[in-house]
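Progress report, Aim 2. The chain analyzed during this reporting quarter is listed below.
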Amino acid sequence: MFLLRLLIGLVFIAQFSACHNLQKKSRFALEKGDLLFQDLDADSISDAIETVTGGEGKISFSHVGIVDIKENGDTLVLEAISKGVCYTKLDSFLSRSVNRNGKPKVEVGRLKLEFKALIDSALLESKELIGKAYDEVYIIGDSNYYCSELIYEMFASNKDSIEVFKLNPMTFKDAQTGEYMPFWLAYYKKLGVEIPEGKPGLNPNGMSQSPNIKMVYSYHTENKY
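Predicted structure tokens for the chain:
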């Protein structure tokens, strides 16, 4: 009887340990400076962005924000959206776009160790940008900001010799046809400006593939990388 009880006890301990380890493995905590790459399906411009910037993963990203954790523990996302540069509550950001299972279509990128010292100063610099207008033309260097431009400028303003993100020639053409997408032709015609084809810029998909960050977590699959 003693041996039977001992065996049952050992089995219980083993099951508890396995369950505890599984829970510990599935736990994920955001860090200040994490980049939240989001697949937005809310409107046609998101689809147009994803079409011309095509990511390599299972989802394509049309938006990105950066995590800021305040002294009181509040987790906010700094982003450039239609209303301009602003802070958004994490829950609001994550619930903006979900898959059929109700999981946020968001993946987390984390700066590699050699760049983490830049995060605090980058977020400090961003205070000057709160309230700036959204950049509808997608041109680097003016006083307006689109989502990935905001992240780029935050780190570029450090004036450090280390370049975190690189600018590349932008394209608004369909990769399959080589022609401008009808959406972008109509979009820039309405704005009354030329399409900035070939101008320097960057997008969420390209930023997510930067060698200077590591993708660490997927909210839509709840898996760590």
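The radius of gyration is 21 Å. The helical segments are 2-26, 44-53, 90-94, 119-126, 147-156, 182-191, 204-208. These observations will guide the mutagenesis work planned for the next reporting period.
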